Amino acid sequence: MELTLAIAIGVLSASGVYLLLRPRTFQVIIGLSLVSYAVNLFILSMGRLRMDAAPILSGADADITNYADPVPQALVLTAIVIGFAMTALFLVVLLAARGLSGSDHVDGKGD
Amino acid sequence: MTGMNHIAILPILIPMAAAVFNLIGGDGRSNRRIIGINIGFSVLLLLVSILLVAVLAQSDTAAAAVYPLGNWPVPFGIVLVADRLAAVMVLTTSILSLAALIFASARWHSRGTNFFPLFHALVMGLNGAFLTGDLFNLFVFFELLLAASYGLALHGGGRNRVRAAMHYIVINLVASFLFLIGVALIYGTTGTLNMADIARAVPHIAADNVGLFEAGVAVLGIAFLIKAGSWPLHFWLPNTYSSAAPPVAALFAIMTKVGFYAILRLWTLVFANQTGPELAFGQNVLFVLGIATVAYGSVGALSSKALDRLASYLILVSAGTLLLAVAYNVPGVTTGALYYVVVATLAAGALFLLKDVIDQVLPAEAQILAVSLEFYGDEEDVIDEDQEVSRSFPAAATLLGWCFAIAALVMAGLPPLSGFLSKFAMLSAAFNAPSAPTAATWWITGALIISGLFVLIAMVRNGINIFWTSLPDDGGLALRPLEVGPIMVLLALCVLMAVFAGPALSYFADTAQFIHSPQNYIDLVLPKGETP
């Protein structure tokens, strides 16, 4: 399971970084989305990977080792919301830049 | 201090209330009443920040307002910590934002929609980033201030602004992802997000995890260095700052200082005073980056013909100077750096505002000249031998000239103004440090003095261009009091900082002492008697 997740994060971030470095704004925004998926998975993995473990304790005498760490799950929720909002905002700027410069190059140059 | 602890959240709540008010009551069309209420909110924020600093200045050195949000027990809940460092940064933000807001209320606020709510949201994010004692909460406030700054960078519209803002947004989104990776790694290795708790936990990290922890801190450091405008991560900065609307650029002057603040706070807390193999992790890297940033900023300042570009490069110079001071890791140098961060921010903000006023009074052909000089160089620059160099200035031009001269003296660090005092404080402390002078001492001396010379040359050349060759002869330039007033106040504060250097420096010395003994911070934030 660790290996699967590590490969997924690696592939997502590698493709994301490649797309980020491309000159078209649309490629950049897809790259940003891929990197944000990779980062979200990475945050989740930092709470240690657990199968079939709830993040909420039940009862005062529950054994804490049977539960998953809830903090990274809360963090990742925040990160998803913020990343999504920022990507949406960037999409608007992308459209504005396309309209003003007539080109989808990140520097607004015609090709 | 118990009753005063609530004051720690007010610098966040007041701008939030202002932003909410504008969203509900502002209805897009800003009239005189709305502007008045907005300035009222800003004045209120300024009063609260002054109160915060005054209360802390009268308490003992290790005092701070600690405010656990929702009263959750500290390492688990989010905590706000208004210590002397945070308080002085909040005060600087409040002064700068009030000046920029008054300046904007003259005409810039109506150049686009939703200026006021975005402006207050940015101030809220800045104050939150300075006050929070929790790493993930710091991320949230960073995003808040960045989201507002994206909107503000686009304020006024136009092709250049949109292009610069697009680069700015992409770079900062990537920086935010790096921030998250760093935070996740630190959480994975220390099991906590509270800054004080991280500092406490660092010596107890398992040996296998130390490398992972350091990787996390390095990634986090890159995110902060991008915000701080450190070489070679600064290429977004000059374009964004010089194409943003002037009051927005003035407020942006403090945004690079957020990166500086985060580095100073976390690095001194977690690394600078640890013993053993963790001692001063990354110190050399920070120092070299500081030197490179100062060098790049100085050369960039020399190469810029337009005043707003010059101001952007001056921001880089001050960012590099601050990085150097942090990396030197001596309380006395930090004292000078804290003094410097206040005056450099105020002067840079004033310079961005001054540029707009000068643009209004300059004849159109002079502006075209400045722009074409920027693109084509100045081989055709013919000096008219017959023209008198000195001539009687009309009062308005004299006023602008004085403002420019004061800003130049402060930025270049010439006596008798506060820029000189701050650099002198840094250098004298660097030479008086134990085991000084080392190679690093000479490097920091050289960087500060040579960058001062470069900045002086750049400012003088710009001043000659503007005031001696370009300003129209006939007197009575039309200036708006709402626009000149804030500039004069900001620069007057720089002068006052020099007049009252004694009390200011003793406040900053106490602050630096507090920063450099992280156990104080840990004892302050974490409940007493907790064993790891």
UniProtKB/TrEMBL annotation, chain A:
InterPro entries in the cross-refs: CPA3_antiporter_subunitC, NUOK/Mnh_C1-like
Subcellular location(s) per record: Cell membrane
Membrane topology per record: Multi-pass membrane protein
Pfam (any one): Oxidored_q2
Membrane spanning stretches: 26-44, 74-97
GO cellular component: plasma membrane
Keyword Transferase: no
Keywords on record: Cell membrane, Membrane, Transmembrane, Transmembrane helix
Top-level taxon of origin: Bacteria
Family: Belongs to the CPA3 antiporters (TC 2.A.63) subunit C family.
UniProt protein name: Monovalent cation/H+ antiporter subunit C
